[in-house]
Amino acid sequence: MRHPEDELAELESASLKRNLRPVDSPQLPHFKVNGETLLNFASNDYLGLANHPSIKAAYQEALEQWGAGSGSSRLICGSLPPHRELETFLAEAKGTSAALVFSNGYATSVGTLSALLQKGDTVILDKLSHASLIDGARLSRATIRVFPHNDLTKLEKLLQSTTEKAPPHSRTIIVTESVFSMDGDISPLAEIIALKQKYGVLLLVDEAHGLGVYGKNGMGLSEHLDCSSDIDFHMGTLGKSAGVAGGYIACSQPYRELLANRARSFIYSTAPPPAQSAAALAALKLIHSDEGTQLREKLWANIRYFSELTQSPLASSAIIPWHIGDSASALALSNKLQHEYSILAPAVRYPTVPRNTARLRITLTAAHSNDDIKQLYHSLAAS
Ligand SMILES: *Cc1c(COP(=O)(O)O)cnc(C)c1O
C-alpha cells in the first residue's frame, strides 16, 4: 500500500507540493496572510465586488427573506425565487432563451459536458481548457480530441475527421474559453464560430475570466465581439468578477431542460443558498450598470499601467503570466516577493500548467491603486 507521506515527499522534492495559505482578512488588495499584511495580486475578484457594500447588502437582505439554505436539490423543493430571477437575468444578458444555475463553475462544467455527451459523441477541446472542462469531458465517455492552443488549422482538421465518420444522431461539441485562466490570452471566437457553422457542430465557451472584464455591459468577450447569438452554451462562474459564487449555463430552453434532467451535479446536489444567488444577481446588475462600466475602466487603466511600466504589449485581460519555466525558480521568486516585498503573486506549476512552464500568475483588479501596481513593478524589477 502507498503511504501518503511518501507521495507528499515526492511532490515536495519536485517543487510541486501545494500548501493552504491561511488568509485572515477579507478578500481585499491589502490583506492578512499568516499574520503578515500582503499586497494581493492573486485574486480573481477583478472588479472588487466580493466586498462591495451593495453586494453585501443584497446578500443580507436575501438571507433575511429566504433563509440560510435551500433545503434540497432544485428538482425536489429547492427552486426558489432568487435562483429563478438569476436565471432570467442571465438568459436575457446572454441573449438566450434560458439559463441554468449551478452551485459553482466546476459543477457546471462537469455536469454540463457529462449530460450533453455520451459514448459515440465527440468533444473537441482547446489544449489549455480548464480542469473542470476536461473532467466533464472524461466523465461523459465521449471521444476526446484536443487541438493545440488557439490553433484553428488543427481544429479544422479535427472537425473534418470527426464529422466525416460521426454516427447519425451523434453530437460534436467544441469547447474553449474566452479568456484563458492561466495565460490570460483570448480565443479567436469569430473564427471558431465560422468553423463551428461550417461543420454544423455545437460550441461551448467558458467565460470565467471574460465576464466583468469584456463587453459594453461586462457580459464577456462574446458581447465584446458581438457574437453571443452564435454560441450554443455560454458558461461561466459567479465567483470571480461577480465576487460571489455559483456557475451558470445560458442556452436554449430545450437544452436547459435536458441539463436539468441529466446533469448529475445539478440533480444530486443541494441548490445554492438562495442568498448566494440573490447576491450574484445583484453583482450582475452592478456589472451591467454605469458603476460597472467605471470599475471596468479602472481595471483596464490598471492593466494598461502595468503593461506600460513593464514595457510590454498591452495585456489581453486581468491575468498576467510572469513566465519563469521551472517550478523551483517560480516558487523561489514567489517566496521572495512575499517575504521581502510583502507581495502575493502565487507560483502556478504543473499540473495546473504544462511542465516547465511554471510562472507567477499575477492578477490585477479595479480595487488596486496606481501605487499598488508601482510597488508590484518595482519588486519584480528588483527580484
Ligand atoms: C475558476 C474556473 C472554473 C470553475 O469555477 P468555480 O466557480 O470556481 O468552480 C471554470 N472554468 C474556468 C476557466 C475557471 O477559471
UniProtKB/TrEMBL annotation:
Instruction: Recall the GO molecular function terms of this protein's record.
Output: 8-amino-7-oxononanoate synthase activity
Q: Does the keyword Ion transport apply?
A: no
Could you confirm whether the keyword Acyltransferase appears in this record?
A: yes
Report keywords, A-Z.
Answer: Acyltransferase, Biotin biosynthesis, Pyridoxal phosphate, Transferase
Aminotransferase class I/classII large domain boundaries: 37-379
Cofactor(s) the protein requires to work: pyridoxal 5'-phosphate
Its UniProt pathway annotation is:
Cofactor biosynthesis; biotin biosynthesis
Subunit relationships: Homodimer.
Q: What is this protein called?
A: 8-amino-7-oxononanoate synthase
